[in-house]
Task: structure prediction
Amino acid sequence: MMKCRLCKSNKELKDSHIISEAFYSSLYDTKHRALPVHLEKNKLELIQKGLRERLLCACCELKISKWENILKKDLVDIGNLESKFLKIKRINKGFIKVEKIRYKEFKLAVLSILWRMSVSSNDYFKSYSLGPYEEKIRVILESEMVPGEKQYPISVTRYELEDKFSSEILLGFPSGKVDNYFTVQKFMIWGHCFMIFVNDRKFPSININVFLRESGDLYIDIRSLLELGEPNSVLSRLLDEDVHTMFKEKMNWKN
Ligand SMILES: [Zn+2]
Result:
């Protein structure tokens, strides 16, 4: 018997993946493609798929998997640019507008992935340490009290190679800062990069449409995977400057 990291009760713990298998199986991906680029040479780390750890009891694991299944279904649809449930519109080469995202489940799923990487004892995830936010996010996940759109705001970027989407890519990134104040954590699953501003009180001076809205609206910007392969630009591009450029583009952009 061990203490579940989420509900803190003494129970038998499951030996679970830190990053759920759902995000690297091709079960729902009808347009599955192998990733034809090699990223070993730059500083980004591919997230190890197989890493497991005893963190959660069966009950908590089930709770999280329900959110993850919704996130996964949405990512598959967004990846394929077609959905029976979501409204997905490719605005131009650079942007997609998605409507009808289930805000609560989507947001809790993203936060739960970040939180699991933070509580993991594996060195592989050490850049995801959340400090005092680890406990705050635990309380959110346990209580299922989803934070508002201005707390822990999340933005999403889609990566393509030669205008083709690839769901195969999972990547970890070092944590970064925006405005020298906001800690930003990023990870890429199912070809989408999630950027989370780890703050529950202050909201950055950025147009809110850059982030997932409580209404279920989400603007996704589209980038090329090749940009990740340019070694000198990798870190700077992924942190401050990159973030500001992207936000400016999104802010200038009208519905
Ligand atoms: Zn539990």
User: Anything to note?
Assistant: Residues 12-251 form one domain.
